[in-house]
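Both lines are quoted verbatim for reference:

——
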Amino acid sequence: MRANYKMQRLFVTDDLVAGGAFDAGREHSHYLLNVLRMAEGGEVLVFNGRDGEWRATVEAASKKAARLRPVAQTRPQPPMPDLVYCFAPLKQGRLDYLVQKAVEMGAGLLQPVVTQHTQVAKPGIDRLLANAIEAAEQCGVLAVPEVAEAQKLDRLLAGWDKHRRLIFCDEDSSTNNPLPALQAVTEKKLGLLIGPEGGFSDDERKMLRALPFVTAIPLGPRILRADTAGVAALALVQATIGDW
């Protein structure tokens, strides 16, 4: 069932049950009462990543505070997407974009990875999560991805589930066509690894190519910026062997 894009959507942390009213909180109250200028009885869609999406009515608890009362479920809770999206953190503006697009494209886990050429070693987890929630609100996603703490590449690979195929974008590939390599993947559990702005080092590329659970793919004849490469790779993977 597709999302209703005509109504405002809010992510909440409260349990959602019919009639179970809860305080909207300061930020949501300000947004509903002052930005949207909603009157009592107005309707929004709410979701929490657990109970599906609900149509809720706005109740004014005071001039500055609102309550939300779930009325009816509009969409059931879907399973969390099973795509693990591993990425080298970028500078802030590009990183925000990278996370938002990953959520829109169906990532189920956001895993920052520290490589030799990574410029930002420790991205702010709270900001990553805030961007993921904002993207979910805007694009109709109900299952907000988990955001993991950053790991060094060698540690990530050492603990990787060997039954999950890891696809990495190799700028040193001898071909420009990613489709043959993707079409040869038979595993249903997938991960995608995007490198930093400076690319993977020769040692990292050699380490990745030596692992039996890793598949290297090119991203065409042009050099792409890291944030563009992330979107391009997600589109390729989802359209070829993912949930499209």
